[in-house]
Each structure stands twice: as C-alpha cells, then as structure tokens.
Amino acid sequence: MLQCVILRRLPSAFSMSESLIALSLLFVASGATAFFSTGLVTRAAEQIGLVYRPDERKLHTTATPRLGGLAIIFAFAFPLLLTSANSHAQALVSKNLS
Questions:
Q1: Distances, alpha carbon 92 to alpha carbons 12, 35, 41, 98, in Å
Q2: Entry pTM
Q3: SS3 category, 60
C-alpha cells in the first residue's frame, strides 16, 4: 500500500522536464531583463541627474546611479508578468510552489 501511495505522488518524467524547461526560461528571462534594464536605468539616471557624485565623503570614484534598485524590480517583475499571461506556465509554476 505504501508503494502505491509513493508512486502516485512521484511526478512523471515528462511533467518534470516540462517544469524544468518553464523554470529555466523564467531564469533566463529574469537574467536578460536584469542585463538590459540595468543599462537603461543607468542611462536614464545619468540623464535625469540622479547619480552620486564623488567627493571627499563618498567612497565612489565615479558617478554612480541612484536608481539601481529599479532594474532589480524590473528583473523580478517582468518574468512574473510573462508567467501570469501564459496559463500553461502559470499552472507549472503554481504546481511547483505548492
């Protein structure tokens, strides 16, 4: 009886590979979003003037943008929006989280 319960709870190889592909794509999308949004946010911060200027009180040797956290938020939120728009990916992610 115990073997029967264990076998029913184990995912099949096909669903496991589907989950791995979906989660890998989310990881890649998050990395790509972070890479591109960092450049965009850096340029926007420099144009707006939201940068730390080096002086005797600061450790920075070059101007450093203040909006770095915005790129991290984009890198986290954009793949989640992609997931929520695709019902199949949403089902796979919610299955892995529960």
A1: 13, 26, 32, 10
A2: 0.63
A3: coil
Residue 65: φ, ψ to 5°: -65, 145
Q: Give the residue extent of every domain in the chain.
A: 19-97
With CA atoms as reference, report the closest residue to 42 among 75, 78, 66, 23: 66
> Rounded to whole angstroms, how far apart are CA atoms 44 and 36?
13
CB 58: neighbour CB atoms within 10 A? 10
- Give the pLDDT confidence of 67-89 residue by residue, as tens digits: 888 988 988 888 888 777 777 66
Buried residues in 28-44 as b, exposed as e (16+ CB within 10 A): ebbeebbeebbeebbee
Give the amino acid at 41: V
Q: What's the pLDDT tens digit per position in 29-59?
A: 889 999 999 999 999 999 998 988 888 887 8
